[in-house]
Amino acid sequence: MKNTSTLKNLLGSLILLSCLSPVVASANAEARGLEIATEADRRDTGFVDSTAQMVMELKNKQGQSSVRQVRSKILEVTGDGDKSLSIFDTPKDIKGTASLNYSHSLKPDEQWLYLPALKRVKRISSKNKSGPFMGSEFAYEDISSQEIEKYTYKYIKDETLNGIECFVVERYPAYKHSGYTRQVAWINKQEYRAEKIDFYDRKNTLLKTLTYTGYQQYLQKFWRADVMHMVNHQTGKSTTLTWSDYKFKTGLTDKDFSRNSLKRAK
Questions:
Q1: Residue 235's domain is classified under what CATH number?
Q2: Theoretical Cys-Cys bridge with 126: which of 65, 74, 108, 132, CB 3.0 to 4.6 Å?
Q3: What residues make up the domain containing 227?
Q4: Element (H or E) spanning 179, and its range?
Q5: What is the pLDDT of residues 28-40, one digit of tens each?
Q6: DSSP category for residue 171
Q7: Whether residue 209 has pLDDT greater than 60
Q8: What is the tens place of the pLDDT at every residue in 137-191?
Q9: Residue 77: which of 43, 57, 122, 47 has the closest Cα?
């Protein structure tokens, strides 16, 4: 009887462990995913502000392209998402158009667009996060700063991408009106910077892939990619952002990111 009772207890424990192990594994994967995201955020904190020049090239399915020149300004905000301002210098028909973005953690981002032809500032609806930014393959939610709280995370595996050792992490939008069910990010193990991100649409079908190349380090800490290439697998369109002339700690303040600053942007 004693041996039978012991066997029953052992079998019961094994059954319980088999039930718990997927839950434990999932919890560990989520904790590891959050840990990786937190470290990546920590390493990119403290740049204060930055300015840069950017060339945006749009390509359609047939390979025809159009090019825009853009100036970018970013202000780091402690305890909240960053503020950013993009000013279009060319082509002539959109010269002076400016986009202002206040990123937040979970509450809706605030975004405005200044249209010089109408001489008015238009507020972008918080429900329009998945809409294309200035006709590009980047959505409005893609150009917001990626605060940790905007997602939940799950570590998937380690993988080598183009000779670079990476963590592969899934992240799931925790905010309303996202155009994505999930994103899969390849994070450089050594520098904790994104090398590639796959975006899945609301039907959980692969929609877009963003790749980063030509990373440069600034102030001996902050990594910025020279080129960001977004391809839409469903339409065949793509957008390439080529960055240059990065400057940090330039003295930008909140006044440089007010709605009135949109009209003054030149």
A1: 2.50.20.10
A2: 108
A3: 45-264
A4: none
A5: 999 999 999 999 9
A6: E
A7: yes
A8: 999 999 988 899 999 999 999 999 999 999 999 999 998 889 999 999 999 999 9
A9: 47
Structurally, the chain folds into a number of domains equal to: 1
Instruction: For residue 37, count CB atoms less than 10 angstroms from its CB and return exposed for 0-12, middle for 13-18, buried for 19 or more.
Output: buried
Secondary element (H or E) of residue 69: strand 65-75
Whether residue 217 is contained in a domain is answered as yes
Residue type, 95: K
Scan for tokens 């390979």, then name that residue. 63
In a domain, 201, yes or no: yes
Residue 171: HSE in the Cβ half-sphere, 13 Å Cα cutoff = 26
Does residue 3 fall inside a structural domain? Answer: no
Contact 52, 115 (CB under 8 A): no
Cβ neighbours for 85, distance < 8 A, ≥ 6 positions apart: 72, 73, 74, 98, 99, 100, 101, 256, 257, 261, 262, 265
What's the pLDDT band for 20 if we cut at 50, 70, 90?
low
* Structure tokens, 43: 């390493």
> Does residue 4 belong to any structural domain of this protein?
no
What letter does residue 143 receive in the DSSP assignment? S
Provide the 3-class DSSP secondary structure of residue 227.
strand
93-147 pLDDT, tens digit each: 999 999 999 998 878 899 999 999 888 999 988 788 888 998 999 999 999 888 9
